[in-house]
Design brief:
The structure holds two protein chains of two kinds.
Chain A lengths: L3 H11 L4 E2 L2 H4 L17 E3 L4 H14 L3 E4 L16 E4 L6 E5 L4 E4 L5 H10 L2 E2 L12 H7 L6 H4 L6 E8 L4 E5 L11 H5 L7 E9 L1 E2 L3 E9 L2 H13 L6 E6 H11 L9 E9 L1 H17 L4 E4 L3 H12 L1 H6 L4 E4 L9 H14 L3 E7 L4 E8 L4 H20 L18 H20 L15
Parallel strand pairs in A: 2-4, 3-4
Antiparallel strand pairs in A: 1-2, 5-6, 6-10, 7-11, 8-9, 8-10, 12-14, 12-15, 13-14, 13-17, 16-18, 17-18
Chain B lengths: L10 H6 L11 H6 L6 H13 L6 H7 L7 H5 L6 H16 L3 H11 L1 H18 E4 L6 E4 L10 E3 L6 H4 L3 E2 L6 E5 L3 H6 L1 H13 L2 E4 L9 H5 L3 H18 L3 E4 L2 H14 L4 H11 L2 E3 H8 L12 E6 L2 H7 L3 H9 L3 E3 L15 H4 L1 H18 L3 E4 L2 H14 L4 E4 H19 L1
Parallel strand pairs in B: 5-6, 5-7, 7-8, 9-10, 9-11, 11-12
Antiparallel strand pairs in B: 1-2, 2-3, 4-6
Helix pairs in contact in B: 3-6, 4-6, 7-13, 11-22, 13-14, 14-15, 14-17, 16-18, 20-21
Chain lengths: 462, 434
């Protein structure tokens, strides 16, 4: 329980209406979008309206040694916003203004509570775009997205969130406010703290303002779907496309289990016996897109695709993408619990990874469907299960362990875009070794010695 | 198992939710408050905590469950197909079972149950309303604001009670020569007491199709105000009374011009009366032949195109949630509008976004209701039209209040009124030619 004194100070700093203390409200901040994760009730939820108010909250928390859990829309998949140690949930949703769209410098300055899609909509009006597009683009906040360094479907050509963050304003664990980076393309002044805080999952500081890079929106785009009767052929086709110097905006893959589930769900016309489907989109100037689309089509055929479909118009394009967009929803309706991982490997290892996942599924007698961003090696092995079945959940955890082992053995990583949070903390030494984990802890303790900011995530206490 | 009988009935529905939070993208209340409890995911969690025994149904809990306009936007945006409308009804019914009904609502629903008394009250009200309401000059309709704040502010614009209710204005059977069909008309309260112009338009347009219209005297409130607030017992009484009244008169079809009334007849009565074999059969029978007036005129008896006169209006159409998402009717009203000579249909930004009225929601949460309404009004203003058409009298009230307070010159009407206007214009032209 929080001391009455702390609550009074919070109310004084933010006003009664921005401080929630009733059980019925608090319990709705006990979870996020992560499956099969225990919920934890915070003691209070605060919604500051400015950087100054955030700093006030941090100072109050620091004085009383109360943990703070920064939170946006709570759509992350790593337990990143669950208040495991109680304390304060700090919602940034009321700091939701787009402060500036700068067409000359191609930047936007936003508050952390801005929804990614809202920024996209503003950028689109100027013929620009903000490329990172996680699946939660219509719900996730910019602050959350920067903190998790989210990826999405366009990673192959456009990169991920960290490639678009130019400057940050932050409140540190002691309540001090710093600004780092800015609108300049070049900036080597001091350590690169902008990169450092991007993807730090709110464990080192609280982001209160973000300067992002915008780019001209592509003039047009074209989608191509290819069906394969063999995973290896699909893998080779991915490599061949890249080797031919075509960098598609998106290059997605779905395995047989996903195809069957999706097809039964939306009837998009996918062959049920297909071993893999690749979905590719090229974008840019009209002339370039025309050339690349023809080239990709040819490569896919040469690499042994049994069927290649090129979307002629937007309607056909939407139909091709319907299958991919329906992947997660379709899978989620099959069983009550959907454990979605994001182990990532170098793209050349995609076929190996897919085969390993299938072996793991058989071995542990589990339903695992895999789809994901084949072009950047980021797969989403999705385990369909039921968290009330303790015996099956045991097998799920074993399978997850093995998926991570394989990913690391193939030269990959634990998490491509979902983050570590609580969910993957225990695997960190597999990737970094003890020395790496110790260094993470040293960094955490240097910046946040009392473990006030999002404690219980990424770094375990020493 | 009916959602009205036990919270357990929604166990499977709750289990479908994977907490992705996609409901946040479309929830009109969440867009205003940005608090998790406002959105479906938040209330789903609360229901789960109650079912698992971790939390109890408290009055605070009941307050949280009142935060929903039942617009069903989250249903459509849910990747897992969660029917949140069922969850919220079950949670509210449970709240009433455990904590009782809010005293004001209790009085209101009791009044609605006692149809004759209610009818008398409304008549008296039509005479004495000037005491509490201040008439506002408007060239289109009779509207007023509260003189005294009774807890919902004094900005809200209300339609004045009609001097004569619709059902007392018409005989029980409106005869035509050699009718091609006999259709029963369920008026609903708002059309009966406030917007009698909509009711007259329905009768007029059906007569144009050579249809005999029956308006059973024994009908009353559809019961939706009670059922959505968890007062299942009152809702059952009202459902049975209406079923009896219509069974007595008989008809080949039943038409409504209110999206809530339509939902009641099509979906709610059957579920409310699930454990009453006799009434369940009756409810199902009538559910199968209940049509929204626009649906009826497009699919059942395609409306007569000859005789339609010119109506010069630039119209934007607002989709009532319970017509659009609730009954899947969104093209039919547009189809009607497009067929009226002179009408130009101009779509607003988000025609399917909730207007924020949601019946008693607007009384319990007046500020939120107005905030939601303001967004709708802004979208309407952007169309630069002169008319807003909609398919529900409750939405009409809210939209009217919104445009009136924003000072926009815009007439708010039910689609059927514009169609009636067109038939009238057609006749006038004919008369002139003769």
């Amino acid at each position: 329980m929080l001391a009455q004194e702390v609550l009074q100070e919070l109310v004084q700093a933010l006003g009664q209406k921005n401080v929630l203390t009733e059980q019925e409200d608090l319990m709705t901040y006990a979870y996020d979008a992560t499956a099969a994760m225990k919920h934890h009730k915070p003691d209070v939820v605060v919604s500051p309206l400015s950087t100054e108010q955030v700093a006030e909250v941090v100072k109050i928390a620091a004085r009383h040694k109360v943990p703070i859990y920064p939170r946006g829309s709570g759509t992350n998949l790593s337990g990143g916003t669950i208040p495991v140690e109680g304390g304060i949930v700090l919602s940034l949703l009321n700091m939701n203004k787009i402060l500036e769209m700068d067409q000359d410098n191609l930047t936007a300055t936003v508050q952390p509570g801005v929804i990614i899609q809202a920024l996209n909509d503003e950028a689109a009006k100027l013929g620009l775009m903000y490329p990172p597009d996680p699946g939660t683009v219509t719900t996730a906040t910019m602050g959350g997205s920067v903190s998790e360094c989210s990826g999405g479907l366009r990673g192959l050509k456009y990169g991920v969130t960290k490639h678009y963050i130019m400057g940050l304003q932050l409140v540190l664990a002691n309540g001090e406010v710093i600004r780092w980076g800015g609108k300049t393309v070049k900036n080597v002044t001091g350590y690169d703290l902008v990169a450092f805080f991007t993807g730090a999952e709110g464990t080192l500081g609280i982001i209160t303002e973000i300067i992002v890079k915008l780019i001209p929106a592509p003039e047009t785009r074209k989608s191509i779907l290819a069906v394969f009767d063999d995973v290896d052929k699909a893998g080779k086709a991915i490599a061949a496309i890249i080797r031919n110097k075509v960098i598609p905006a998106t290059l997605e893959i779905m395995d047989n289990v996903t195809i069957q589930t999706v097809e039964n769900f939306v009837h998009a016309g996918l062959p049920l016996d297909a071993e893999a489907v690749l979905l590719c989109e090229v974008d840019g100037y009209k002339e370039v897109v025309e050339r690349e689309a023809v080239l990709v089509e040819r490569i896919l055929k040469e690499e042994g695709a049994v069927e290649v479909k090129l979307a002629k118009d937007d309607k056909e394009r939407d139909l091709l993408w319907l299958a991919r967009r329906s992947a997660l929803p379709a899978l989620a309706q099959k069983r009550p619990t959907t454990v979605l991982e994001d182990a990532t490997v170098p793209r050349s290892k995609i076929p190996d990874m897919l085969k390993a996942i299938r072996r793991i599924a058989t071995q542990h007698n589990l339903q695992i469907a895999t789809f994901g961003h084949a072009g950047d090696g980021n797969l989403h092995p999705t385990i369909l299960t039921d968290e009330r079945d303790a015996e099956e959940m045991k097998r799920v955890h074993l399978a997850v362990d093995e998926i991570f082992q394989v990913a690391i053995a193939l030269g990959g990583t634990l998490s491509g875009e979902h983050g570590i949070g609580i969910a993957k903390m225990k695997y960190l030494d597999w990737e970094f070794g003890e020395a790496g984990v110790t260094m993470l802890r040293q960094i955490k303790e240097a910046l946040d010695p009392n473990y006030l900011l999002n404690p219980g995530k990424i770094v375990r206490r020493g | 198992m009916s959602v009205y009988n036990s919270l357990d009935s929604i166990t499977e529905e709750l289990r479908k939710c994977m907490k992705c939070g996609n409901c946040q993208a479309v929830c009109p209340i969440y867009k205003e408050t940005r608090q998790e409890v406002a959105v479906a995911r938040g209330k789903i969690s609360l229901a789960e905590y109650i079912l698992s025994g971790e939390m109890e149904m408290t009055e605070g809990m009941a307050d949280r469950f009142s935060l929903c306009t039942t617009c069903m936007a989250c249903n459509t945006n849910c990747p897992c197909g969660v029917r949140f409308d069922k969850i919220i009804l079950a949670a509210r019914a449970e709240a009433v079972r455990k904590k009782g009904l809010h005293p004001v609502k209790k009085i209101a629903f009791t009044a609605l149950k006692m149809q004759r008394m209610f009818d008398f009250g409304m008549k008296a009200g039509s005479i004495f309303q000037v005491v509490g309401l201040k008439h506002i000059p408007n060239k289109h309709s009779r509207m007023a604001r509260m003189r005294v704040d009774i807890g919902i502010g004094t900005d809200k614009v209300f339609p004045m009670l009609a001097g004569k209710s619709l059902r007392s204005e018409f005989p029980e059977v409106i005869k035509v020569n050699n009718p091609q069909m006999r259709v029963a008309f369920f008026t609903g309260c708002m059309i009966n007491y406030f917007y009698t112009d909509i009711g007259r338009a329905v009768a007029e347009v059906l007569a144009e199709q050579n249809i005999e219209v029956i308006i059973p005297k024994g009908q009353g409130c559809c019961g939706i105000p009670a059922s959505v607030n968890g007062d299942v017992d009152s809702a059952r009484v009202m459902a049975k009374r209406n079923l009896r009244a219509f069974a007595k008169m008989g008809a080949e079809a039943l038409v409504v011009a209110c999206s809530s009334c339509g939902t009641a007849w099509k979906h709610v009565y059957g579920e409310l009366l699930e454990n009453d074999p006799e009434f369940k059969t009756l409810a199902d029978k009538w559910a199968g032949k209940t049509y929204d007036i626009s649906e009826f005129l497009i699919h059942q008896v395609p409306f007569r195109k000859e005789g339609l006169g010119r109506v010069v209006r630039q119209v934007t159409y607002h989709d009532p949630c319970h017509l659009n998402r609730g009954q899947g009717i969104n093209q039919e009203p547009r189809e009607i509008l497009k067929n009226i000579p002179g009408v130009e249909l101009i779509e607003m930004k988000e025609p399917g976004r909730c207007c924020g009225m949601a019946g008693s929601f607007s009384l319990v949460h007046p500020d939120l209701s107005v905030q939601i309404s303001d967004r709708k009004t802004a979208d309407i203003a952007q169309t630069h039209t002169d008319t807003v058409a909609t398919g529900c009298p409750a939405c009409r009230l809210q939209l009217q209040s919104g445009v009136e307070n924003a000072g926009i010159e815009e007439e708010v009407m039910h689609t059927i009124q514009i169609l009636a206007e067109s038939y009238r214009a057609g006749k006038q032209k004919l008369n002139r030619q003769e």
